[in-house]
Design a protein that fits this description.
189 residues; mainly alpha
Length: 189
């Protein structure tokens, strides 16, 4: 209510106060939202340490978005030491619950060999799953993969398909890539 200003004036400080009250009582969404507020510095001083604390509480109780955020913090070393093994653990937990961003980042970790043995087959599989779940960045990346033909056999029709999906969601680079691909295809025809 206070975060979005629905029926009241927007007030992040009050939002944090109410999230905190609910979070200490074990409310998962409140714990996650409090983590978000701490990470963004909305209504409180920005603190990745506090964000980590609240994300972890919610993540340990199965909150998929909190699990994803923990994966991000471990992968980037925000507020904690970088740890790819722990990032993988939390991305996997979130991905198992259908969190598309976690699926995508798992794919990226397999593509780069961060915390796991590099495996392009698994990487593409994870990125495809995220794209199918509607994650725009995964759709764009899958378009690139098909256009470049480095991990998969080049398939310009599939590249066009995934660029178009991402462009429809407002991804500007995908729109540009789609236009360039269409121009390339029309000159080849």
């Amino acid at each position: 209510m206070y975060v979005k200003g629905k029926g009241v004036n927007q007030d992040y400080t009050k939002a944090v106060k109410w999230y905190y009250k609910a979070a200490v009582l074990g409310h998962l969404e409140a714990q996650f939202q409090l983590g978000q507020m701490c990470a963004a510095g909305k209504g409180v001083n920005q603190s990745y340490t506090q964000a980590f604390k609240w994300y972890r509480k919610a993540a340990e109780l199965g909150h998929a978005k909190a699990q994803y955020q923990l994966g991000q913090m471990y992968a980037k070393g925000k507020g904690i030491n970088k740890d790819y093994t722990k990032a993988l653990k939390w991305y996997r937990k979130a991905a198992e619950q259908g969190e598309a961003r976690a699926q995508y980042h798992l794919g990226r970790m397999y593509a780069k060999g961060n915390g796991v043995e590099r495996n392009l087959t698994i990487a593409v599989s994870k990125i495809r799953k995220a794209a199918e779940l509607g994650y725009v960045e995964a759709q764009f990346n899958l378009g690139q993969i098909y256009e470049n033909g480095k991990c998969l056999t080049q398939d310009l029709n599939q590249a066009e398909y995934w660029y178009r999906k991402a462009a429809k969601q407002g991804h500007l680079t995908a729109k540009k890539s789609l236009d360039n691909l269409r121009a390339k295809l029309s000159t080849e025809a």
